[in-house]
Design brief:
The chain is of the alpha+beta class. The chain contains two helices and eight strands, in the order αβββββββαβ. The chain has a single domain, classed as Lipocalin (Beta Barrel).
Length: about 130
């Protein structure tokens, strides 16, 4: 019986490293809403996955800025990505969410650059929902 419990524990531990989650690799498209400035934008993410590590590109359309390269990780259904921002006003856009049934949704946080913060720019918060293409 101890061998069975140990085997079940090892399978559960392996699942936390994304082996049991849906792969996030691919193209995702949807919308993000910046709650801080009451604006929204179309968004498209192209993501590649190697184990639990992620790389990709985010493209924001319409009114919001911050397209660029992304790095991140997946742990089960939890996904965290960080994109560069426009590097002049805002940097380090952190996209944190969950992936389930072909939908990746969550919240994002946009940090101002130090010089933009001195000019009064503040952290911005928002939500996003993306669908697998």
């Amino acid at each position: 019986m101890n061998a069975l419990k140990k085997s079940a524990w090892m399978v559960a531990a392996a699942c936390t490293l994304s082996a049991c989650s849906d792969p996030i690799e691919g193209v995702w498209q949807g919308e993000c809403r910046n709650d801080t400035i009451a604006s929204k934008s179309g968004v498209r993410m192209s993501i590649k996955q190697e184990g639990n590590k992620l790389v990709g590109v985010v493209q924001l359309q319409d009114e919001l800025y911050g397209s660029g390269h992304m790095l991140g990780y997946i742990n089960g259904k939890d996904v965290m990505l960080r994109s560069e921002g426009d590097t002049q006003t805002f940097v380090n856009i952190t996209w944190s969410g969950k992936m389930k049934d072909g939908v990746y949704k969550g919240t994002y946080r946009v940090e101002p650059t130090p010089s933009a913060a001195l000019l009064g720019k503040q952290v911005q918060m928002g939500t996003f929902i993306l669908h697998r293409q």
